[in-house]
């Protein structure tokens, strides 16, 4: 379905190896806000990208929507990728990135006062899949592309706010396959597992909106508040501050200490 009106474009400033890009909001149908992420080569969730997405949601809610009626869709202009997640080196090297950039983005989508749909048109890995899971609905587009939580493969633990959304929204067996096997899900497998709601692309999104009456779900103004209650466990993880914040470095250091102490204990027991 062709877009007919561009409402606004928000720049994504470049950062180190990432050239930046844009978030463009179009209106393919009344009260239907389509946010297209264009940040080559693979829509990494850098701090500027997170900030641009947050700004786009503010523009929709506070400037362009006359009420909280409507639906927000996110997708990518890059055919191969919806989002390839974080740049791990950049994320680890940016103090406070997850607490100040990533988690606020997840929380904003999770509690947005209108229905949200991730239109996944390519690979959706790691942090990209986490972002999609914080939407209310997910629709795959086309036969190409995989969804995957591949932290196991590149040696990074899952932090509680990152893992929590999968525990909230997926069946236990699907969650196990996803995080303990780093399974890659194509469109059909994702549909069968309940990870996505449709595999019919933009037509599937528009059908979902029509069939479920999504455009008017926010009319009473409590849609976001209901989601706050529905996902209060995940929100508590995203909102954690101070001593309650868990980070990758602390987890890795603690695990190295555990292994060192375990080895020493095991060696002593041999004697």
Automatic annotation (TrEMBL):
Provide one Gene Ontology cellular component: peroxisome
Kindly name one Pfam family recorded for this protein. ECH_1
Q: Which residues form a coiled coil?
A: none
Q: Which InterPro entries match?
A: ClpP/crotonase-like_dom_sf, Enoyl-CoA_hydra/iso
A GO term for molecular function: delta(3)-delta(2)-enoyl-CoA isomerase activity
List this protein's GO terms for biological process. fatty acid beta-oxidation
Q: What is this protein called?
A: ClpP/crotonase-like domain-containing protein
Q: Which organism is it from?
A: Pseudomassariella vexata
